[in-house]
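Following up on my earlier thread - several people asked me to post the actual chain instead of describing it. Fair enough. Here it is, all 335 residues.
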Amino acid sequence: MGQVLHGCATTTEAVRRAIQNSQESLRTLAKRYGINPKTVAKWKQRTSVCDLPTGPKVPKSTVLSVEEEAIIVAFRQHTCLPLDDCLYALQPTIPHLTRSSLHRCLQRHGISRLPDMPDDTPTKKRFKSYPIGYFHIDIAEVQTAQGRLYLFVAIDRTSKFAYVALQEKANKMVAAQFLRDLIATVPYALHTILTDNGIQFTHRSSDRHAWMHVFDRVCAEHGIEHRLTKVKHPWTNGQVERMNRTLKEATVKRFHYEDHAQLRQHLADFVAAYNFARRLKALRGLTPYEYICKTWTIEPERFKVDPNQLLPGLNSEASNKYGSNLSTASSNCSQ
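Reply from S.P.:
Thanks for posting it. Predicted structure:
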C-alpha cells in the first residue's frame, strides 16, 4: 500500500526508520539524506515513522457556536430524524446552517448515523414518474360545532401542489365545479385526473346507459384523461389519502372549531404555508411552489402563465386573469 505523507515532507518512512536506528551524528545523517539537522533530531526523538495529525487537537466548528452545536445534538438525539429533515427543521433557528456543516457537526459527536430500527413494514413501491399536471382528487368529511362539511382535496403527483375546498354538499355538480376551479387556479395544464369510483366522479355500474357524467364532461372539455382506481383499492389513490390525513391532523383532530368560518380560515392558512413554505424531501428540499417555478424554466410549454407572476402579494395582471394569486386560490375554502 502506498505511503500517505504530508505535503511538505522531506523524508519517507524508510528514511525516518533508518534515522531512528542509526547511531551516527545529526550532521552526518543530515548530509547523507540532504535534510536539515533539526529534521533528523525530530525523527530521532519520535517512536513512530508516521506524520502527526494536523489541525486543532480538539475538533470544533468554525461556523457553529458551542450553543448551536448543543441545540443540533439535542435535536438529533431526541427526534432521530434523517439529515435532511434535521436541516429543514433547524434552519429557521440557525439560518446559517448548511447541510455540510450539519453533517460535520453530527460526525464530531458520533451521531452521524442513525441506529438501526427494526421495521416489519413492507417496502413501499415508488410512484411512476409523470410530467407535472397529474392530480389525485378525493373527498373527506370534517366536523365543527356548527355541523358537517365536505373537504375536497386535490394534489399534484409530481409537484405536490395542493388545492382544497370546503363544501356543504358532496354531489357531482359540486365535484365538477371543484375541478373547474382547480383548472382555473393551477398555472399549468392538467393532463390526468385520478379519483375513486364515488358517484361524485363517475356513474355506477348500473348506470351504463346514462349520459356522460358531468365530471367526465368537464375533463373532456379541457382535454384531461380521467382515471379511476380499482374498486376497494383506496391505496391506489394513496397520495391524496395521505394529504387528507395530514389536513385532518393539522385541523379538526387537534383543534375545536365553533363554526365553519374558523375551520375555513385555519385550513386556508395551513395549505398556503404548505404550498409556499414547506420544503419536501420528495422535491429535494424545494417547496411545491419553488418546484413549479423550476419546472417553468425547463418546460414552459406546459404552462398557461408564468408562475413567478403569482407570488403572494399584490394582484398582477396574470393573477387577476386566473382568479387570484396562488396563495389564496390554493386554499379556496370559502365556498
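The longest strand covers residues 134-144. That should answer part of your original question.
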